[in-house]
């Protein structure tokens, strides 16, 4: 559509809205489909015989912060969407009592509760934060030898000279150590409890004035009084630590410091390889409290003192030493990382303080009042045109970046000004690129509030909500009202209505600082959240605020959509429908598509549209606007209509067509529920019973991945198998049941389905497969009734293979009805007619007394075989008894002639050869098949 045609379309839409009785025009930007970005939080779980490893990876997950509180391991993820830890909850690893998630300010915490004696080791590797979980007695320490010698005393070798004291601590196994100076004392801390073989009265300590040691519950510490001018170094050989006081300095390095503003309160993170434990100590002379962080060899330490507002990091020869006057300073070891923070965060200077200061060029965009503001004046070009203005700012940024290659402390003002210009001009993709380049050149700028705020706002403006939320989650923007406004906007996009209202309320004082177009978009989003939470008066007030802004037509139309929804909830359906139709005629698919969808729903509800007409209008909408909640709503509506019309394949195809593209939208869970419920209603609640069995089977196979796990899924398969058995489609029925046995079941349930499978194979004249099904699922502790049924099925299969003796051994003395029936058939097959006749008559029981009902086909077969068997075995008395009892059933029988001859015996004028021929023609298999079919029906109907 040309620009002129588009403007004409918008003008027509505006006129139509005015005619519908709406107020002045206003805003929200059309929804933009989310990019399929990297999974923000990916939880990976692996296990071996020793431990279970849980990794948190992804854009946000890799920055997870892990701490330990008693027996709880707490993983804090900077995302309000809870990580998927369902597997840990359902099947906790060894050593884990339970796993839970809880929402915290700006993120989510996964809490792993350990059982008594279990251990956990945490750290970071391969771009992920990890937790290694060990069952009691299986931790890494359990596999190593004790560090303390058997005597309980650690030998200490002392070597001295006038300028130097050297102490060698002979541990039995490697231990972590921390060595540092505080004033006129050198502190040596080991993270194992032991006694030290130190007797200062009996030894010359060289330049040192004295040494004292003390043992704690899980550590031992030595304090050496030594003048401040003496250097301190630490070295290790095997399990021995050698501490030198005096002599040359070791040039301590190996500890890197970084700030962490992404995971909760601002923290200082030290990379200390082999970090073991933070131990809090009290100086007996000064009385203050400080922390020592031990680490394994080789030695690594801090080369110089670092003074911060909340703490001081001491120069160390090994490990870390932390001084603080704060009572709430937390020092925690997380693998090779040592995290130092306070509940409210550390007071760290902004990253720009370490850079040279520079004044912005004349007329360059300047910093806004809040870090996440986007100002329209940033895009002003002055007297120049846009291209010239952009080139001017871009050249200044490039020159600044070139200068920074020679000076790490070069300023960043020109690069920030260029990013502000791009964002103010609506070039959000370019602004993100400029800010990412700045962070790549100056990594510390990742913690600068303006960088995080401006990049997060640009990402939110183009629909990259997950990435934007990662920027706004960091502590650099904690409490910032402009960031709260964006958090509310993102929450609306994610359909988290309650969180959206809370965030908008926190950012209320900053909204009027935004340009009119963004004020309108935020107001429309807030009004929608108010509608969804049932606060209609607030929605009206917010829409009135939106309509007071002077904004472009697309934002006006977006606000009209919310207003139409308000009319609908107020019961003004005619007015709402008029607005929906007017907006639906706009040449903007982002607002026209949801408007048309809403109009179709209202017209269907009123009866103005038939389902067929609604489908004709919705199908094009499905392809007109894709990638967000609107497409999802169209798909769900189509699925509902198709299901209501009995068009099951179309319904399932429509619902499944969404795939996993919308997994980050809350509505995607509802769509998956619709899909599962549709499949359930078809194959569990009887909706597909009207289909031909072959059609039902084809539908099931095409969508079999929707089969639910557990008893419901198994019942679905059995019901479908029963329908196939009813129409003698025994091969497909066997395939269904075989899949259940091989892939979905175990224990008693597997044995039951395998028994049904064996019956199907026997009905299909496949006794070998029947035996395999029975033999492959043998197990102990089955119910007696099921065991009897399986024995009878196995004996029948052996009988069909001609292995009569083996079959008789299988049923043994079993007197169940199924076993007696197989036993009778076995005797008949072995030509033992007298024994067979007795058993057949026994199977009939007292049926002769129920004269009001005719015999079933199976009963007629048994009666004929009993009569023929008595005749062939020349047993006149039993035959006479049989004739007397069942003579009255002959006239109503299906095979009246055969039954009359069988009961008459030799009196019928038949000779032995005639009876032998009748015996050969009388088949009990058909009756058994009919009985099994009936059993299948009864079982599925009862379920």
Explain how this protein is built.
This protein is of the alpha+beta class and 943 residues long. A hairpin with a 2-residue loop joins strand 12 (177-182) and strand 13 (185-190). The chain is flat, with a radius of gyration of 41 Å. The two termini are 59 Å apart.
What structural class do helix, strand and pairing data support? alpha+beta
Share in helix: 40-55%
* Secondary structure: number of strands: 28
Mean pLDDT: 82
Shape: flat
Strand order of the largest sheet: 15-16-13-12-25
The unreliable regions are 1-38, 141-145, 353-360
Largest sheet: 5 strands, antiparallel
The percent range for strand residues is 15-25%
Rg is 41 Å
Summarize this structure as a short list of keywords or feature phrases:
about 950 residues; 5-stranded antiparallel sheet; about 15% strand
Could you write a compact summary of the structure shown?
Helix content is 46%, strand content 16%. It has 33 helices and 28 strands. It is flat and about 130 Å long.
Q: Can you lay out the helices and strands and say which pair or pack?
A:
Blueprint: H1 3-19, E1 42-47, E2 52-57, E3 65-69, E4 72-77, H2 86-90, E5 96-104, E6 107-114, E7 119-125, E8 128-134, E9 153-154, E10 156-160, E11 165-170, E12 177-182, E13 185-190, E14 195-196, E15 210-215, E16 220-225, E17 232-237, E18 240-245, E19 256-260, E20 267-271, E21 275-282, E22 289-295, E23 306-307, E24 312-313, E25 316-318, E26 320-323, E27 330-334, E28 337-341, H3 386-404, H4 413-424, H5 428-441, H6 449-461, H7 465-473, H8 481-493, H9 497-506, H10 508-511, H11 516-532, H12 536-547, H13 553-569, H14 573-584, H15 589-606, H16 611-624, H17 629-644, H18 648-656, H19 666-683, H20 693-702, H21 711-726, H22 730-744, H23 747-763, H24 767-775, H25 784-800, H26 804-811, H27 817-829, H28 833-844, H29 857-872, H30 876-886, H31 896-904, H32 912-921, H33 925-942
Parallel strand pairs: 9-14
Antiparallel strand pairs: 1-2, 2-8, 3-4, 4-6, 5-6, 7-8, 10-11, 11-18, 12-13, 12-25, 13-16, 15-16, 17-18, 19-20, 20-28, 21-22, 22-26, 23-24, 24-26, 27-28
Helix pairs in contact: 1-14, 3-4, 4-5, 5-6, 6-7, 6-8, 7-8, 8-9, 8-11, 9-11, 11-12, 11-13, 12-13, 13-14, 14-15, 15-16, 15-17, 16-17, 17-18, 17-19, 18-19, 21-22, 21-33, 22-23, 23-24, 23-25, 24-25, 25-26, 25-27, 26-27, 27-28, 28-29, 29-30, 29-31, 29-32, 29-33
